[in-house]
């Protein structure tokens, strides 16, 4: 890892308490970056604190992505204590996988509140400062469900598709101002979005969170090239989709 590229950068990661988000945070410990690690609750963020206790520049700021008030409050804390964000990595997300007829309006509201609305609000708060400094990278962790149809994923795919549609338009709005909007589509990765039974059955065919995190770090390094824009990138297991 090229520590010089990310040295002194401020990196905000949501979904940092587990899975891909945690793996990204672990990878960044060896850089000189300032890390802002967020998850959905104090209890979830406490689980990773011991792993970062010796890291000199880390902030633990849990908040509920479904709450605009908590999002605003967290952003104000960052703005007052740090003053800028160079990278926003939107990894937090939820999913319910079931036949369409078994899904409820509550399921729809919950998934769109976390997967789309919360991400929208974070982007809206973060972007003006990036535009002011004429630099900044927003990386959204989406899903391979946007590249291949999987049954039982209708609402989850819809919530991720909303982000992708927004990003494709937003990317064109801000690229001339030095801002990069990058969408990453991971395939099957052994995280808690899968049931324990599924992970036991398919683990050998899945990517590990660190595999995806390693790719994200490379993307972050490449994003420092002012001549290069990575727009969308698909990451799949070597053996293909499950």
Compact description:
With 242 residues, the protein is α/β, with parallel strands linked by helices. The protein is built from eight helices and seven strands; from the N terminus they run αβαβαβαβαβαβααβ. Strands 3-2-1-4-5-6-7 form a seven-stranded parallel sheet, sandwiched between helices.
Kindly describe this structure.
The protein starts with a helix and ends in a 7-residue tail after the last strand. Helices cover 43% and strands 14% of the residues. The chain has eight helices and seven strands; from the N terminus they run αβαβαβαβαβαβααβ. Helix 4 runs parallel beside helix 5 and helix 5 (105-133) packs parallel to helix 6. It has a seven-stranded parallel beta sheet, sandwiched between helices. It has 242 residues and is of the alpha/beta class.
Indicate the CATH architecture.
3-Layer(aba) Sandwich
CATH class: Alpha Beta
Compressed to H and E, one letter per element, the order equals HEHEHEHEHEHEHHE
- The best one-word shape is globular
Looking at how many chains there are and whether they match, the oligomeric state comes to single chain
The biggest beta sheet is recorded as: 7 strands, parallel
């Amino acid at each position: 890892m090229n520590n010089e590229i990310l040295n002194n950068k401020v990196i905000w990661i949501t979904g940092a308490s587990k899975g891909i988000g945690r793996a990204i945070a672990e990878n960044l410990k060896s850089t000189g970056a300032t890390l802002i690690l967020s998850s959905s609750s104090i209890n979830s963020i406490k689980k990773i604190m011991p792993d970062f206790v010796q890291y000199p520049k880390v902030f633990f700021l849990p908040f509920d992505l479904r709450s605009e008030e908590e999002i605003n409050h967290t952003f104000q804390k960052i703005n007052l204590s740090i003053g800028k964000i160079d990278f926003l990595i939107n990894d937090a997300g939820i999913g319910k996988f079931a036949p369409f007829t078994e899904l409820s309006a509550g399921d729809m509201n919950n998934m769109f509140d976390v997967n789309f609305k919360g991400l929208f609000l974070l982007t809206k708060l973060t972007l003006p400062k990036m535009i002011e400094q004429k630099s900044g990278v927003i990386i959204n962790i989406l899903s391979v469900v946007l590249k291949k149809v999987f049954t039982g994923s209708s609402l989850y795919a819809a919530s991720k598709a909303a982000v992708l549609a927004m990003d494709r338009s937003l990317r064109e709005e801000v690229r001339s101002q030095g801002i990069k909007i990058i969408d990453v589509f991971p395939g099957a990765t052994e995280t808690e979005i899968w049931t324990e039974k599924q992970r036991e059955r398919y683990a050998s065919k899945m990517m590990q969170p660190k595999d995806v995190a390693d790719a994200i770090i490379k993307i972050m390094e490449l994003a420092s090239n002012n001549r290069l824009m990575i727009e969308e990138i698909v990451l799949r297991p070597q053996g293909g989709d499950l």
